[in-house]
Fold these 3 entries.
Entry 1:
Amino acid sequence: MKPESKFKRHLITSALPYANGPLHIGHLAGVYIPADIYTRYLRLKKKDVIHICGSDEHGVPITLKAREQGTTPQQIVDKYHLLNKESFEKLGIPFDIYSRTSSAIHHETSSEFFKNLHNKGVFTEKTIYQYYDEEAGQFLSDRYITGTCPHCNSENAYGDQCESCGTSLNQNDLINPRSAITNSAPVRKKTKHWFLPLDKYEKFLKAWILEENKHWKSNVYGQCKSWLDQGLQPRAVSRDLSWGVPIPVEGAKGKVMYVWFDAPIGYISATRELTAEWEKYWKNKETRLVHFIGKDNIVFHCIIFPVMLKAEGSYILPENVPANEFLNLEGNKISTSRNWAVWLHEYLEEFPGKEDVLRYVLCANMPETKDNDFTWKDFQSRNNNELVAILGNFVNRALVLTHKYFNGKVPERKDLNDYDMYILSELPQLKNKVEHNLEQFRFREALKEAMNMARLGNKYLADTEPWIIIKTDTARVETILNISLQIVASLSALIEPFIPFSAAKLKASLNIEKIAWEDIGKTTFLPSGHTINKPELLFEKIEDNEIKKQLDKLMKNSKTQEEQGTDVEPLKENISYEDFAKVDIRTGTVLKAEKVAKTKKLVKLTVDTGIDKRTVVAGIAEYFEPSNIEGKKVCILVNLSPRKIRGIESQGMILMAENPQGKLVFVSPEGEIQNGSVVK
C-alpha cells in the first residue's frame, strides 16, 4: 500500500445511489460519510483531489416502479436525482460533480467504452434461452422474474439472486418461475447477448487482489477471495430492455447495457463532464483511485469493473476499495419497503441545524468491518454526553473565559510549567493518530482521537481551574487560556472532516478563516492580542420527548404487513386435506450452529428431532449469532426431500416468521415439550 503522499492526485468515487428512492442513514454510514471525511482530509492537506458521484438511473427496479406508479422511468429518476442531490448538499457533502447516468455524456462515454471492448474482441456473443412473458410481450430480465430458490426454498428469489440465502442465481435456476409483470408462467425463448468473460481474467485478478492488494480491508479482501476461489463465469453485459444505454453494435436492437456494466462507467463520464483534463485522473499512474462503496457492491467494483478497465487497457485500477458493511436500525435490518428507515431528507427537516450530530453519530457507529446498529437513544446520548458535554463544553468555557477576563483578546503566554508542556506536546501526537487512522480508513478510531483533543482541553481547564486562580494569579490564567485557545484552534481543523458545520462555527468564533492540516498542533497559531468573536453554542441538548417522537414515528410508519395492506403476501392456492396430511412438522432442539464458510446468510444447524439428529441449512446468519441459538427449541419440517446447499445436504426446514421490521424470528413451541412431538 502506497501512502497517499506518493500520489500527485486523488480520484475519490462514491457509489452512485440508485434513483428509485430517497437516501437513508444506511447509505450515509456505508458510503457517503466516510467518503466525504476522507476527501475533506485530503483537501486540508492541500492535495489535488476530486470527489465524483451521481445518480444510477438505469435498471429493472426503476422500470418496475414506473410501471407501478403509472409514470415513466425518466420521471422517477428526475424526482429522486433532485431530492438526493439537495439532501447531500444540505448534509455538507459537496461532490465536485453530482452527475447522472441518463445524461447524454454518459450514454456517449458508455457507448464508446462498449464499442472499444467489442472491437478488441473482448466480448463473447451467445444465443441463449431466456424467459419471455407472452402476455406482456417482452423478455424478462433478472428482477422481472421470481421463483423458488433451489438452494434454500425461499419462494421470493429473483432471477439473479436469492435475498434469503444470498446465493447468486441464473434465472434458469429458479423453480416455478413467474413473471413480475403479469404473474404468469413465462416460456423460454431464444435471444442473443454479449458476455464479459470474467473467467479469462482470473489469473490477473488473483495476482492483483490476492497478492498486490493484501492491504485491503479484511471484509473486502475476504469476499473477493471467496468469489475467486469459487471460480468466475462469463457474465452477460446486455439486457432485453427499453430503458438504459442501447448496445451500440449491429444486431442489438431492443437491447441495453446491463446496469452494472454502465453504472461504474458513470464515474468516468462524470469526470469527463467535470473537467477537460479528465484523462489525467483516469489514465495516469500518478493518480490514486479510491472507490467508497457498501458491501453489496464489492463484486462489481473489485472484480467486474477492474476487468472492464483491464480489458480496455488505458485506465488505472483502484488502489483501494474501503467498503463498509451494513447499518441496522434499532436492532433490525433497514427495510425501505416497510419504511423501517431514517430518511435523510426527513431528518434534515425535523432536526434543522443538527446536520453534524447525524454525521458524528453515523461516524461513531460506522459499520467498518461488521454490521453495526443505529438507535435513537444512542443518538441522544452521543449528542448530550459527547458533543455537548465534551467538545461544546470545552470550547465554550475557553472562549467565554477569554471574553470575561481579557475582553476577547488572546492573552499572552507566560512561563510554562511541566503540565503545560505536556499538554502542548500531546497536540501533534493526537493529530498524527487521527491522520494514521484516516489513512487506514478507520474513521471511527480517527473520530475518537479527534475527540480526545477536546477531552484533553476539558481536563486541562478542570485541573488548572482558571476561574478560581484569577483572583490571585492573573499571569497564570493568561497562560492557561492561551494554551486552551491554541487547542481550540487545532480542533477547528481536526474536526472539520467529521463535523464541518461545527468547524466553520468554531473558526468564526476564533475570527480566523482556515487552518491547514499542517498547522494542527502548532502552539502559537493564535498570536497574543488577536481578537476573538463572541462564542456561539456549537451544540444543544436533545430532550427525551424528541427521541420519543422519532421512535413513535418509526413504529407508526413501519406498520405490520396486515395494516400496510401492500406488503402482505397473497394467499397461496388451496390444497386438499390429503396434501396437508403429508406434511410432518416436529419439535426439536438446535444442538449446534455454525456459519457456512464463504456465505453471508447461511447457518449449518444440527437439530435433535426426537427421531434423529440431522443437518439443516438455514438462511438466518444476518439475524442470529450461531452461538446464541444453540439450545433453541424449534419447529422443523422433517419430511422435506433433502437438498444440497453449498455442498451440504440439508434434511428439513426450520419454521420461521418475519416480523414487521423484516427480521426473521423462530416459530417455537411454548413450555416443556419433548423433541419429536408432532405439530398438528
Note: The chain has a mean pLDDT of 92.
Entry 2:
Amino acid sequence: MKKIVLKIEGMSCSACSNGLEKYLNKQDGISSASVNLVSASALIEYDDKLKIEDLNRFVSEAGFTSLGEYKVEKEERSNKNKILLIVFAVLIIILMYVSMSHMIGLVEIPFLSIHNHPMNYAICLFILTIPFLIYGFDIFKSGYKNLIHKTPNMDTLVTLGVACSFIYSFYNLIMVLLGHNENVGNLYFESSATIIFFIKLGRFIDKKAKEKTNSAVVGLVQITPESALIKTKDGEKEVTIDEVKKGDILICKPGSRFAVDGTITKGETHIDESFITGESKLIKKGINDKVIAGSINIDGYVEYSAEKIGKNSTVSEMVKLVLEAVNTKAKISILADKICGYFVPSIILISGLTFLGYLILSYPFNESLTRFVSVLVVACPCALGLATPLACVISEGVCAKKGILIKSSEVLETASKIDTIVFDKTGTLTYGKLKISKIHNFSKYKDKEIIQIVGSIENNSSHPIALAFTNAIKEEKMEFLDVNNFKNISGVGISAKIKNKEYYIGNNKIFKKFNSENNYSNIEDELSKDENSIVYVIENNKVIAIIGVKDIVRLNAKKVINKLQDLNINVIMLSGDNEKTANIIAKNIGIKTVISNVLPKEKTAVIRDLISKNKNVMMVGDGINDAPALESATIGVSISSATDIAASSSSVILMNDNLERIVDLINISKKTFRIIKENLFWAFIYNILMIPIAIGIFKPFNLTLNPMLASISMTISSLCVVFNSLRLKNVK
C-alpha cells in the first residue's frame, strides 16, 4: 500500500470534505481516504495498481480539483484578495446607500431617487450587483457542481439563495422598465450582493486565521536554508540544496543554519535545535555527532558530511508526519461529519417548506422569498464542520513546536482519557547510558585527572563501562593521554602504563591478583546499594580511587512522576532488572508500582493485561526496541533521537528526552477537547436559534432576519469557532 497527501482546491465547508471523502472511499484500489477541510488536503492510502493521475481524476469526478501532492511552501504574501475585498467594500457601501438611503432618512441622490426616478434606481442597483455576481462566480460554480454530484454544500445554499433573489429582482426590473413602477419595491439586488460580499469577507478572515493554524508546519519549512556551503578543492562554494549530494563535506559557520542532516567531521560547537526538538537549551556537539537541517550553529566553525537530503531529512519527515496527522480524524470528528452529511439537504428541505408554507398562508411572494433565502443563508454547516478539525490542527502544530510529533488526531482525543502510564526503565526513566555517579578519591590527583587517566586507558577497551569514561573526557574537553602496554585481564579488568606508571582498573577481584585484602568493602557496599558498578583504580599497587558507574535516572523524572500522579494517573515502571534493583530506582523517583524481571518479549503481555482491565494505557519506551509493547498500548510514546522518526512504530514521538513533554501532551489534549466541545456547543446552539428566527417563528415578537443580516450572522458564526480554536496557540 502507498500513502499520499493531496492538496485539494474548491472545498468551502464540511459538506464538501465529507462528500469528497465518501466518494474517494468508494473507489476500487483506495483502502482509506480522509479529507481535512482546514488544510484543504486528502490523505489517501491506495494500492499499486493506481497512479496519482487516477487519484486526481477521482477528485475531479467528485467536483473538486487536485493540485497534486501536498507541499508546504514558504510563505509568499499576496495582496490581490485584500485589494479585491477593499474594492468590493466600497461598492457595497455605494449599493447600500443607493438602495436604503430613503429608508433611514439620508439624503437621496436626486437622479437615483426611488420615488422620482424608479427606472434609474432599478438600473443602478442591477449594474452595481453584476460585479458581485462575477466576484462570487467561484461560489456559484462550487455550489452547482456539488449539487450535480449530489453532495450539496454551503456554496449550494448560497447559490440557491442568491440565484432566487437575483432572478426575482431581475423579473421586477423588467416590469419597472415596462412601466410598472410599483414593482420597484420588490427589488432585492442588494441582498444578492451583500450575501456574496459577507461570504467573501468571512472566507478572507477565515483563510488568514487558518494560515495561522499551519504556522508550525510552514515554520519548519522556512528554517531550512535554500543554499549550502560546500567544501571543494578550490575552497568554499555556495550551492543550492538541490545540488548537495550524500557524502559531500559541507561547512557551517557561527550564526548559520545547517543545510542538511549529517555528521560533524571537523570542529565543535554549541547548537540550537529548539524549533525541531522543542528544547531551548544549547547542545554541545563535536566530531561524529549528528546535526539536523535547520538547527543553528551558535559559536563554532564545523564541517559535516551530508547524509539525509530533501525528502529524507528530519524536517521533511516531521512535515510529512504532521500533514498525515491532520488528515486523520478523532472519533468526535467522525460523529460531527455524519451530522454535517445530513445538514445541507435538511436545510434545503426546510427552506423549501418555509417558502411553500408562507405562500399557503397567503403571504406576499416577496415575503415568502425573503424567508426562503434567509433560511438558506443563515444555516452554517461551516461552524459545525470546523469545530473539531481546526482545533486538532492547531494543537498538532503546538505539539510539533514542543517536539511532540503525533501520528493521528485520535491520539489528541485519547490522551485526555489516559489513566495508566507504563514507563520502560532503561533509556526512558534513565538515560540508558552508563555515567560516572561518584568518585572516592584517595590520591593527590583532582577528580578530573583521575577521569583522564582512567578514560585514556578505557579508550582501548570495548567494555560498556569504558564509554562512561571516554564520554566524560570528551564532555570536559580533555585530551587522551598516551597509553602503553595495554592488557585485558579476563573477568577482572584492564592494565596499562602511562608515563612509566603502572595502572590496574577493574572490579574487586583485582585484589586477588595482588594477594591482598579489600579494605574498601564499606565503600563498595555503599555504592552497590545505590546501584553502581564498582571500578577500582590502582596506581603502582596502591588504590587511588573507587568510582561508581551507573545508568543515571533522568534529572526531571521525579518531577514528571509527581505531576502525573497529581493528574490521578497510575504510574507503573516496567524493568528487566531484578526486584531489588528496580524497587530502589522506583522509590527514588516516587513510583509505587513496579513490574520487574520482565523480558522484552513479555512487555506486550503486561500492556495487554492492563488494557483487558479497561485501563487506558500509555506506554513510554524506546521507539524501536519496545515496538510490540508500544503498538499494543492505547497510546505508544517513544523517546527517540530526533533522527529516528521514520523508524519509530509508536503513535507519538518525543523529539527530545524531556519527559515533561508527556505531561504537556496530556494537558494539550484536555484543553483541545474542551475547546472542541465549546465549538460544537456554539455551532449547534447557533443553528438551533438562528434557523427558527430566519423561518419567522419569532415574527410576533418583531424578531426576524433578512438575507443580509443572515449572511452576516452566518459569517460571525464561523469566525467564532475559528477564533475560539486559535486560543489553543497560547497553550503553555
Note: The radius of gyration is 35 Å.
Entry 3:
Amino acid sequence: MNVFWTCDLAWWKLLATALALAGVLAMSWRHVRRERATLRRGALAVEILRILGVAALLVTLLKLERIRILPRTLQPEVLVLCDASASMTTRDVVSAGDTGAVSRAGWLAAQRARNFAAPLAQRYTVRVEEICAPPTNDVADAGTDLNAVLDRVAQEGGAVRAVLLLSDGDWNAGVSPVTAATRLRLKQIPVFGVTAGSDQFLPDLELQAVSAQAYGLMEEQITLPFTIQSHLTREVNTSLALEGPGGVVLSRKPVVLPPMAQTQGSLVLVPRAEGEQTYTVRLPVEPDETRADNNARSFRIALRREVLRVLIIETSPRWEYRYLRNALLRDRGAEVRTLLLHPGMETGGGRNYLSTFPGTREELSKFDVVFIGDVGLGAGGLTEEQARQLKGLVEQQASGLVFLPGPEGRQQSLVNSPLGDLLPVALDAANIHGSGFTMESRLALTARGRDHLLTMLANTPVENDAIWRGLPGFFWHAPVVRAKPGTEVLAVHSNTRNQYGYVPLLVTRNCGNGRTLFMGTDAAWRWRRGVEDTYHYRFWGQVIRWMAHQRHLAHAEGLRFFYTPESPNVGERVFFHATLFDAAGQPLQHGTARVRVRTPGGREESIELNAEAGGWGVFTGAFVPAEGGVHEVDVRCEETGRSVSTKLSVHQPRREQTGRPARPEVLRELADVTLGETGTMAQLDELVKKISVLPERLPEQQIFRLWCHPLWFMLVVALLGLHWVGRKLLGRI
C-alpha cells in the first residue's frame, strides 16, 4: 500500500502563495520589532498565530490531499444479469431458417444451455443471476426496476470487473437506470448489453382487450367492446367469432383491420342459458402472423333472469303510449304498471293500471324504470312532491327515467320543477307545443349512437346506421334548443338545425346513481311498419334493461346493493350504495350497514356505510382495492339481519406488457455512460470476447482531501480567532 501527498501546483497558485507568505512574514517581523521596543510580552506568539493562520489558508488554496493506493487482491469477476421479467415471454425472436418465433426468455435459456459465458471463466469468476422475476402469487406486479439492480451492483463493487446485461431493456419501475450507471462509471465497472427481442413489431394481429360487465340479464343484448391491434402491412378482412361454453360459435362479426392501426368495436351477446358462463372472443390467425397465442380472449359473466318493474305515466292515450305499453307488456322480463292521468277527467283504469300515483317511497322505489309522457305539473298532472319523489328515485335508488314529450307541451312545466335538473335537454319556452311538418323527417345517429347499446338494432355500426336511415320517420318533434352539458347525444333531427347545430332528439344523462333518457319524437311506434315488432320491441327492451342495470347488481328482500365503477382498477375508489328497508317495508332511516370485502389474497376489510340524507334508506361508503382479482363482497344490515353477497372484479393493470418491441436504446445509454458496449443477439459471443480482454482495472485509491475537511476549516478559524484575541489583549497591556 502506497501513501503520498499531492497538491495543486499551478504556477499562478505557487506565485500567489509565495507573495502572500512573504508579505505576512514581513508584516509580522515589523510588528515584532515594534512591540519589543515597547517591552510588550507575547507579541511574538501573536504573530506566530497570524503566520500559521495565513499558512493554513494558503494550504487550502493549494488543495493538499493524501492518496492511498490499495492494490486489488480479489479475483476479478464478471456479473451476468439475465432478465426474467414477464415482458421476456414476448415471442419475437426469429432465427434464420426457423418458421416461427420463440420467446425472448426461450432464446436466453438456449444461450445459457450452451454456456455462452465459458470463455470468461479462463480469466474471471463468472456469476450468473436472474433479475426482475415476476412475483409468484400473480397478484402484485413489481415490474422491472433496472436501476435497483445496477445500484446494488455499484454498492457491492468489490471484484466486479464488468456487467453483462441480457435484457429487452423494458424498465417500468423505479427511476431511470442511468442514475445507477453513473455510480458504476465511478467504480470503473462497464456495462455490456445485449438486447433480447426485436425492436420492431413483428407481423401480427393482437386481440388486445374484450370488456364484459359484471352480470347480464336474460333477453338482454349485452355489448362487448373489443380492441384489435394490427401489425401487418396490409389490410385484413376477417371476422371475429364469439364462442360460448364448449366452443360453440354463437355469432360472427365481420371486421376490416387497417394496416398498422388499432381497431375498436363491439360484439353483441344474447344470453341463452342462466348461470355463470365462460365465453371466448376469437380472431382467426392470418398466414403471415408470427404469433398465434394472442388472437383470443376469454371472460366470465353471470347470467340471470330478472323481472324489471316499469311504471308508465301518461295523460291522453296517444299512439306512442299504446304501442309502448303493449311492447313492454309482451316482454317476459318486464312487469308493467300504468298511471293514465286525464286532465279534467277521472284517472284511467283497467288491467295493470294504477288508480293513483304510488303513495309511499317504498311503493315507488320498487320501480326500475319510469316513463313520463305528455305529463306536467298542476291539475291533472303531477304534484311538486311527486316530482321530488321521482327525482329521489333516480338519484338515490339508481332507477331510470324516460321523458316522452307530446304535442300538448305539458312537459314544459317540468323545467322549473325538481325534475328540471334531470332533463337532458333545454326546451324552448316560447314554443311549448313543438314543431310539426308535412314532410317526413328521420332520426340521424351520431358517432356515439351508431354503436351505443340503446340504439344498436344490428350487429355492426354500419348495418345499424343503415337500419336507422331506413326506419319510418316522424312529422313532429319536441321544442328542443340544445343538449345540456354532460349528456350523450345519440340521435339528432335529420334536417332541422339551429344556432347550436342539428336539434338533438335522443339524449341520455347520468343523474346521481341513475340515468335519464329524452326521446324528442312521438313516432317510434311507426317503426313497426312492414317489420312488425322487430325494431320497436328491441329498442324499448334495450332501454329498460340499460337503465335498470345497476339496480340488479345484487339484491335480496329488503336490501339492494350496487357499486360504481362496475369494473374498477387497482387503486381506484369504488363507491358502495346500499338501500335498506325495515320489516314494514319502509326505507330504513337509522341503522348500521356493513360491507365485508374478502380479497383474492385472503385479507378481509370491513367498511361501515353511512346513511345519506333524503329519507330513501340509502347508505354509502367507499373502498380502494389494493390487489387485482375477484373480491367477495358481503353486505349485512345489523338491525334487520338481512344480507346479500356479490363479487367485485378488480382489474390489475400490468406494468409488464408482452408483445411490445424491445428497447435497445436503454441498454445503449447504459453502455455509453459506463464506457461499455452493446450488441444484438447475434453479437453476444463477440461481446463476450471483448469482456475477456479488458485491461486490468486501475488500483483503488482512497483520497483524503485535507483542504476541504471540516476539522481543517475549524483549525483555520481557530488560528485566526486566537490571533485576533491576542491582538486585543496585547493592546490593553
Note: Residues 11-37 form the longest helix (27 residues).
